[in-house]
Please model this.
Amino acid sequence: MNKKVYVFLADGFEEIEGLTVVDVLRRAGTDTVTVSVTGRKEIEGAHGIRVLADSLFEGGNFSDAGLLVLPGGMPGTLNLKAHEGLTALLREFDREKKYIAAICAAPSILSDLGMLEGKKACAYPSFEDGLNCAEVVKEPAAVDGHIVTGRGMGAAIPFALKLTEILWGKEKADEIAGSIVYRRNREKILEI
Model:
């Protein structure tokens, strides 16, 4: 499996969800690239934090990717969903059973594209009822086949570590967890 990861950013993305994934995966040695879908490299997150993406979607070649990641946040999720090139890429990856990950509100994009049918998934609590999936689970991160979903900002670290585990194995994920003083065996998500 190719270990290159693309994290897609749009104005209004949840900063912690997007940047935690980038940080943790890069610590693991993963070639992780942030991609703007706005037509410009500077993106403003949902809480006014500006970031500079590594690249633009337009003209990008994502054939070397092993994993695509969608952070949540509003209106970031809606902006990602509205990008036709990104939704076409997600459909292609789904057909090829390549890994796709989404956290918080972003699993709703996968649901709307029919990618969660017959699968277990998690999302931010206010999006759970709208998920078209077999089972909504209240876990920090849920993996079903090639689809990985995360519950929300508070689950950003376990979500990123789950992606690390998928790419590099449990031992590497545990190593990264230890290096950031995170205890994986204590993961628990509060009921809302």
